[in-house]
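yo

u said u wanted the structure for the complex thing, so here. seqs first:
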Amino acid sequence: MLTLTSPVKTFAHDIPAGPKLAALGLVTVTLFAMTSPLSLAIALAALSLAILSCGRPFSIALLRSLRPLWPFLMVLSLWHLWLGDVAGGFAIGLRMITAVAAASFVTMTTPLAEMLALFQRLLSPLTRLGLNPKALALALALMIRFIPVMLDRFEILSHAWRARSPRRIGWHVVMPATLAALDDAAQVAEALRARGGAL
Amino acid sequence: MEKNLTQIALFAALIAILGLVPKVDLISGVPITAQSLGIMLCGTVLGARNGALAVLLFLFVTIAGLPLLSGGRGGFGVLAGPSVGYIIGFPIAAYVTGAIVEFWRVNVGLSATVAAFLGGFVVLNVLGVIGMSIMLDKTLPEAALLALPFAVGDTIKSVIAGLVTHAIARARPEALLSRA
Amino acid sequence: MPDPRPNPDRLTLTRASVALQGRVILQDLTLDLTEQRIGIIGRNGSGKTTLLRLMAGLIAPGSGTVRLGNLDPFHDRKAMLSRLGILFQNPDHQILFPTVIEELTFGLRQQGLPADQARTRALAALTAEGRADWCDLPCHHLSQGQRHYLCLMAVLLMAPQTILLDEPLAGLDLPTQIRLARRFADLPQRLITISHDPASVRNCQRVIWLDAGTLRADGPPSPILDAYEAEMHRIGGLDADPDLAG
Amino acid sequence: MPDPRPNPDRLTLTRASVALQGRVILQDLTLDLTEQRIGIIGRNGSGKTTLLRLMAGLIAPGSGTVRLGNLDPFHDRKAMLSRLGILFQNPDHQILFPTVIEELTFGLRQQGLPADQARTRALAALTAEGRADWCDLPCHHLSQGQRHYLCLMAVLLMAPQTILLDEPLAGLDLPTQIRLARRFADLPQRLITISHDPASVRNCQRVIWLDAGTLRADGPPSPILDAYEAEMHRIGGLDADPDLAG
Ligand SMILES: Nc1ncnc2c1ncn2[C@@H]1O[C@H](COP(=O)(O)OP(=O)(O)OP(=O)(O)O)[C@@H](O)[C@H]1O
Ligand SMILES: Nc1ncnc2c1ncn2[C@@H]1O[C@H](COP(=O)(O)OP(=O)(O)OP(=O)(O)O)[C@@H](O)[C@H]1O
Ligand SMILES: O=C(O)CCCC[C@@H]1SC[C@@H]2NC(=O)N[C@@H]21
Ligand SMILES: [Mg+2]
Ligand SMILES: [Mg+2]
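structre next:
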């Protein structure tokens, strides 16, 4: 499955996930504490340097992850222009761009497996509250398996529909596919039990 | 045990699949998505606890870096964006929805529709609006205005959640953990 | 062979290829099928099911063409209803409805039959098979072989001119196999049967041997099936597959 | 018969019954299984798969008891890992993981093997079968027969003392069937094989014939299988099932 991790290797790929995540937390908190557009702009510039040092393809990929922000930035500028509070508008915009870019930077430079392992370690104190780390790992693998299986199911049942009906497919197949998915889950539960279950 | 686990995984996957339905971008930066239907179904079918766990599993993988939010987004960035209130609200909404279905034992279709509306629309949007007001530096009423476009879609989604839950209750009663 | 009704249209493939997920599954198949009984054999993964889906118009060829008469089965879905029926290899891939009777009537309704007539026809078919008690059962309460049989009944009820069967006898018990073989022999329609078991296509007029997505042989059954069996036993004698093609 | 290793525990059913959704599926079965090769035959819907699930501890008996040695397979799941393996009738019901290698290593990990050793063992098994290229393939890209084969590999890798096989050869191509039959014959473990095909259980030491959820016959294969075949052909000669029991 496609992950957000960048195939382009960067210096940050070598930093372990733990410190990176801690730094991200620190940076985000600091950003939200800063109010002056100037200091926020400096922060963004520093981050941009780090990103640009990773090369052109990486920077472009990261820039793409900021795309969902643009409608928000547009409203923001209109709104603050109308209010006459340009500095405030800059602060909010810079803060959000920097925070999202920093987060993307960490996501893109950490392999998924490493991140999941870190999360599991972070969650391990919850074991005492009844969280079973093995069950979590299992649920994760099962979820990732179910995505293509459910899509396949939908396609296969669409074929079954097409084979016997000239009408368009659409929602007719939703219910059979849902029930089939539930059956799959029941079968998987049994198969899991057959091999020791979520011991 | 195994059954709960697999159903949790299944519904987490379902939320991911609903993310493939094209989203509609709005000026607030919070899109109209089909994924909140998945959140509702987690609650109505799996019940409070398992429903919330399914949503948490989905978020766990998404935040760790699989691009499973609508439009192929994921990673920590989503927590720094204007949707953060909704993201935090997802498991809570599923929990509330599930709790209502478990508690209010009338016809499951009706109970699920109402629960999906209260949990997946009211609770979720309250949290989402608070998030927007913080992230976008708006007053609560202003932020609430930004959530207005969700009303129609979310009501339709509640009805769909009710219908689907009803159909499952008829065809696979044993799979309806919320009424187990 | 049963007395043939006005021949169904010829089914032709012209240099048809199919790729799934970037892998070529069927390569450059050219076939002109007119016989009433056709068998398709090949090893697991050789592409038999994919070929069936292609012929049935459920998937479109990546390149080349597929025609039934002068219709394109992928696009002319409406016309296919009375012309092409398909039995899937896995009953779970075919069953759409919660109960047996709904599953059986669906195809008839799609062919334009009013609800009550469809129901009467489906019930009559069930009764003829000694299965009237299945009527309101949920499909997922049937055993695997029973579900398979249900799917077959659903296809036969629609009585399309050409029926594509993907391993129709696999998983069915002996009495049912015997009865079905008899039933198939009497059908006036064209049958295209997939099987990995050479015995079950001995009575065909033509056999097609698929190997890794290509045509390995095509012609009268006896020589091809003999060669196939010999080859299969030869491969079976080896400890593992020498060819690493998945 | 291979040289037997220290006998696996006896599998005993005492007046065991199973009802699903209010229907009695298995009725009052008493069996004491000690043989190394046991076959279970019966028509579609006779309850073979249900019996297997019962013996494997996947479902609990409604009444009566099931014991492997003095363990209860339904409750002592952990103890079953090295004692009981099961191959499901439908591979899609068995596969748990997205990729082939994960599917193969899971059972080994459950048995306590460290991740790297499990991987090495699984890879070695794949390579021995000439299927090293499957390693990182998504399971759902394999054809049905290939998936079936994968499930079998996963069970064999865990090497449990008793293996329950539900129609292990159905859907597999001839070379694979031949190879597997050879492989089964060499296995030191106890095998309990379900089949509706009498030929595939001829070599067993004991055959059990299930009919509508009850024991119709139980004993040495030859007489039972002959009677079974005769009966099946007799029923096959009729036009439909006279008995309406689903
Ligand atoms: N959705 C898919 N994506 C990728 N590859 C696929 C897909 N479906 C099938 N294949 C591959 O295509 C090949 C042919 O598959 P197909 O199902 O047509 O084989 P088959 O001859 O019907 O085999 P079997 O006898 O096992 O049913 C296989 O190697 C399989 O791995
Ligand atoms: N979940 C279920 N609910 C109700 N009835 C069921 C269920 N599963 C199976 N049955 C019924 O139990 C009977 C036995 O089913 P089972 O799957 O054990 O048969 P089988 O001998 O394995 O048949 P096959 O050869 O077709 O696989 C069938 O009549 C079936 O309708
Ligand atoms: O994808 C994200 O960034 C999270 C989006 C959250 C969208 C919320 S869910 C409730 C409400 N209804 C919608 O259609 N969208 C919002
Ligand atoms: Mg096939
Ligand atoms: Mg069975």
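The CA atoms of residues 17 and 115 of chain A lie 6 Å apart. Residues C 141-146; D 20-21, 23, 25, 42, 44-50, 89, 196, 246 surround adenosine-5'-triphosphate (ligand 2) (CB under 6 Å).
cya
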